[in-house]
Batch of 4 targets.
Target 1
Amino acid sequence: MPPFSLSPIKLALLLCISAPLLGQANDITISSTFMAPDAAIDPAFGGDTNNPESAATQVLEMEEVDVWARIRTGFSIQDLDSPLVASQAARYSANPEYFLRTTNRASRYLFHVVQELDKRGMPTELALLPFVESAFNPEAYSSAKAAGMWQFIPSTGLMFKLKQTMFKDERRDVLASTDAALNYLEKLYGMFGDWQLALAAYNWGEGSVQRAMKKNEAAGKPTDFNSLSPLMPAETRNYVPKLLAIKSIIANPAQFGINLPKVENQPYFVTINKTRNIDVKIAAQLAELPITEFKALNPQFNRPIIIGGEKTRILLPHDNAEKFKTNLAKWQRPLSTWTSITVSTRERIENIARMFGTQAEVIREVNHIAQKMVLKAGSTILVPKVIDTFYKDITSDIADNATIALEPDRPDSRRIMIKVGKRDSLSSIADRYQVSIAQLKDWNNLSRDQLKFGQRLRLQVPFSSRAGRSSHRVKAASKKRNR
């Protein structure tokens, strides 16, 4: 293979060009979606506007309740008469350390989720659903390829407009995934008119629940959750009981020996509307946040760079958001240390690393490329910014359409031995094996163009070539390439 050069690579335009950094700070806006809870619960979602106790608690002053109390006031999903609820509650209460870890993790997100439920008039038990789905871990990834706090599989995520690209996976985006999950739950409630069945469908799929209902109807049996339970897989059969067990613990934690962390009834984070590319590490540094905390709020970014754009949002605690804006105005270095390239031919990572003055391991790690794998033509990857070279930002269009395709590393050619047939000539053999006549003569020390029937010839053919693999004249299979 010839030495790596720019010719087979199309450099994608990236990074900030010289611009006043104060202007970058002025691009930033900070917003919060805080709103007071509605005074009434929409009966369309199972609420009871005629309940005096519920109505009274809804108008409590915001500062008089924490989020847990606010969640309790909005409980409206019917309890389930099943021993599974008690057994799941016993299981959770037997492990108070796990419950505390999960509720501490949840404290970042609960206010936002409850706000969104209040806006829609939906039962506040649903704010506890990520406890069952992911233990409130927005970076959770299951064996079924479900991702994020609400555990969307790829196809359902796309159905609810959660973008999944090389640079970003909105199934892990706190705002986008919460909106999508509540949209999905609203849809399921509209289909079944029952929150227990809607929740079962969220876990099992609406088609599965509908088929189970039809089966029971045909047999003259009821179609409530308990009646459908024998037809459900074990995971779904325990799914609603788990949620209602957590509800019972939140309703009366002391009864279960659980101490809930205080969660203030105010936004944990605000939204930064960021319009330019920035490294994740630099964004955390400007916000004066540990990288782990930054990623807990912004787990959707798949690469160490955040691609700027009108729809790009970064979540930060309010005080850190102000620090971010102040520090950004003083920043005198590039906001990103990465650029991108798109290869037009099959390329080895080692060759690209040499071109950009870095180690192959660096490129492999940042692009999630395993050892002994090479890039296929058309792949876009991140590489370190070349010193003293300026590029424009990676555009949203590049980020949305970038793909990476890999294949196992292998020799570029293979050595074979053939037997000359009656009608063979140097020209016909060269055409058949995609080589030149000069190469044939050189490999076999031929001084003339004539060949003899039965003569054996050595060839070095492209590894990808199928020529001669099924021919009766091929006598030797591939050997290691002569480098």
Target 2
Amino acid sequence: MGLLLDGGIAVVVIIVALALGYILFYNGLISKRNRVQDAWAQIDVQLKRRYDLIPNLVETVKGYMKYEQGTLTKITALRASIMSGSVQDKAQANNQITQALKTIFAVAENYPNLKSSDTYKTLQDELENTENKISYVRTSYNDYVLDFNNAIQQFPGNVIAQRMGFTKADFFQAPEEERAAIKVDLTSDSAQPPMAPTTPKPPAPPKAPKTPPKPSKPQ
């Protein structure tokens, strides 16, 4: 009788431990998912701010950049897509807008009147500040996404996560040129140390004029 009682207690303890483990794991997944959603909300705030600043920038520069209407039209079209779609769609639109803005800022260097405009300088500072905030929050967001994805894909968490409806979160990818490794070609001529300057040779002394032939004696 005692053995049966002890065995029953052991089974109850095991069941309670499994239930507690399940609850703790589930709550952990909820916390990780909430961190991902909170970080994404911060990115979304900055994307919305960029969305609101773009029309003012286009209106300010379009009178100067008559030959850059294609870029202005493109950035206006991209503006609409940055507030809709999936995380990957928004990331792609954000990266394309970043490149378009770089083009506008580079071309603006050729217009002194535009560069000296207080409105333009304010918009440029605000857009660059917004881009910096997006880059900063993107790092935290991607860290949280990695932690969450690992938790729901590794065993035994993947079994529980699948049954509870947890799905993998998307990363907010950086532009390709930011992630590309810098390649250094050590075999190129540019990597070789500069040669020491050679000392110029002194000019050769002028040659003496040839002696004219002596006149022959008359016979």
Target 3
Amino acid sequence: MLNKDQIKLLLPHREPMLLIDELIDIKKLSSATGILYLKKDSPFVQGHFPGQPVMPGVLIVEAFGQTAAALTAHGIDKKTYENKLVFLMSVEKARFRNPVIPDCKLELKIESIRSHGRVWKYKGEAFVDDKKMADAQWSATIVDRK
């Protein structure tokens, strides 16, 4: 298990854009579960939508990507990702099945499908209380920080 401080050593994201609080069930370079404790006072839900807060779908996809980036950075040599950034390349088959309402624990179960050089492909499913909220496939690449 990795806590938020350990995740910050792997990812350049910071609040309010760091969207995972824990990384659990880690299988090196294969799969992991990111945990986000979504609160009513999270900046992005306060304006989406006032009086009926919902986590934006695009941020669920971002949380998938951050979970995958943390899994990958945790499993590879630090020199490979030092001074690098991970960029999303494509999102496929994204489906939003149920709204993610705060206060909840969002579980982002991701799996690496394949990698080729600096390009990685993943799939993921998001759950709240064992109910599927969203799923997607995406590709990302590791690039030099400029």
Target 4
Amino acid sequence: MKHAHHHDGEVVIQASDLSVSRGGTIVLDNINLTIRQGDFVALVGPNGSGKTTLVMAILGLLQPTKGTVEILGRDSKKMKFDGKIGWVSQAAANLPKNIRITVRELVTLGVLSTNSLIPFRGNKKDTQRRVDEALQIVGLQDVADVDIYRLSGGQRQRAVIGRALASNPEILVFDEPLVGVDRASRNSLLKLLDELCHKENKTLLMVSHDLPAIRQSAHRVIYLDLVHDNDCCSGGIHYDGPTDQFPDLVGLAALRGIRNVHEEVTPVVINPSPVVVYEGSKEEE
């Protein structure tokens, strides 16, 4: 496994010897992970590889079987985030069309405490200022008073990112932010994420299956996979490194242990019965 070259910022996420089981299956096994302020990290892997499990463990929503996760120096299970982490789910932009809510009203929801439905801190004027700043960052100030259902998919995604930004989080977590975004809007949305990292000094963790988009945006890739060994299985990090060094499709297949079905196999005869094996069948380190 290759390791990333980290930024010099402060550590904002630290997973140490983290193992998480779900339904009796070890989905994550001895994960050690450091994410620093200003990192733009893409979390990739096949379905069932543990991406969502890792995110939920980081957010303190899943109890680890072993190990710890610290967010901003505190145990993630014990801290109250109060807007320090902005979460943008895959379905966040898919609001029902019968809901009449303006962009500004949606972004304002990001300033509210989920427990009391009152602002995290500050007065009405401060809330207005933070909403205006979020609208400006995501480039929606000109449509602030437009109903959300009238926006394009890319604009709606910007709006929910604005809602997350309104609490002024230090960390932003995205789950498939490009789903439902038209091709024309994809590049501008990726540019927005890059600016959040470089201009706003936010730390970004993005779950995505869109490898071409990841190659053009994220600084670092963490590749997870669930490895089956006889009756057991365990998941872990199989690549953690710079985006430009992430394996191509052929290398990725090798990383997953998938061989080209069109390649000839070399039969090896072992008396008393023939057994067909693949050359180089020993798994790469």
